[in-house]
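pls ignore typos typing on phone
nicotinamide-adenine-dinucleotide + seq
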Amino acid sequence: MSKNPFENSLHTLHEAAKLANIEPNVVKMLEQPQRIFEFTIPMKMDNGELKIFTAYRVHYCDALGQTKDGVRFVPDLDLDIVKALGFWMTIKHAVAGIPAGGGKGGIKVDPSKLSECELERLTRAFIRKLPVKGAWVDVPGADIGTSAKTQAWMLDELEEIQGFHSPAAINDKPIEANGTLYSREATGTGAYFLTREVTRDLGIGKGARVAIQGFGNVGRIAARMLFNDGYKVVAVGDIFGGIYNANGIEIPTLEDYVDKTGAVLDFPGTKKISTAEVLEVECDILLPAAVQSVITDVNADKIKAKLIMECANGPCTPEGELKLMAKGVTIIPDVLTNCGSAIVCSFERTQGLTDTYWDEETVVNKLEERIVKAYKETLATVRANKVTYRDAAWMNALIKIQKAMKARGWV
Ligand code: NAD
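k done
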């Protein structure tokens, strides 16, 4: 398997298209983005020096609706990464039944090296220079290196250019700038809802032992909700190391501890383990919620969990996945497990379009309804075709996209 993320996503496309009997012209349409924008942003730094930044925005496929998703500010951004991420978002939106296509973009920059004023000028310039924008075309959200603050600047700049309010045109905004409630918690909560559904269907049951790698936005919320629902969280890890207690870790107390110390390490009453060992402890359910490619052909044999919920994007390499499948491990794929934020972002756009803002209960109930429906559709395809959950999710997504392309007369 190639290391190029875009080539890897094309590989998955071809495999799933074969299984779902997708027409060759649909595959041809999906082998490249519909629109690629690459542009430069010249900017005077605080010290007067002129710097030129490279920016990208890819509209991968808008058969299901306007493109939407993140803008990433990272130093190693390149077009292939943006294309791959735009493609994944196209699939994720289709899996989740969101009427949107996939988009992605960003700037090649290390935001930690910018002053606050430089970051604001660069963010506003990104929106000014972006050739196509607006709620019915392409909705940029936050991603690595961007935040609610940058999204508020993007919205403000866009509205300044347009001359009217347009809260549905930018996602991941703060609540004070027409954002949605519950966007920060959406992915971890979605992962919890799915874990609950899958464990029930697999007969694993409450009280099951859970290990979680990553205690950030996603892992921490999922840990809290699983703990509150009676699951036994036996191991947790972050970038600094891991902790283990066979009798279960008190998650609310761990949260207070992490707020004070910044890490899970040395939490009282737990045994110190490495970040990698978190993946290998005795447990029933494993949530990799940190980074990509942590489960490979090298460590797959050591993994004891019966169920892996892919909270991070791409935590299992294809080679690792083959070994896990041979051991009978069930893997719920990233495009399904972590689609909670994509769902709540689509709610944010809907609220902006209607200028009606929902309470938290409404957002959470709608999230639950949408993600459970996506899971049930995936499960039906797994059972009908005897395929993996990953293949089933991709097959369902491709079938939905094919129907839209046909209805529009594209193929
Ligand atoms: P985060 O930055 O809030 O937290 C990441 C956690 O992983 C931290 O605890 C960090 O210490 C740990 N970590 C980082 N590098 C690690 C490493 N090399 N080994 C072990 N632990 C490491 O990030 P997040 O928002 O919780 O996202 C987690 C994963 O989920 C990422 O892969 C992200 O792309 C994916 N994801 C997030 C969302 C979302 O809404 N936040 C949506 C979809 C996918």
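DSSP finds 13 helices and twelve strands in the chain. The longest helix spans residues 360-385. more later
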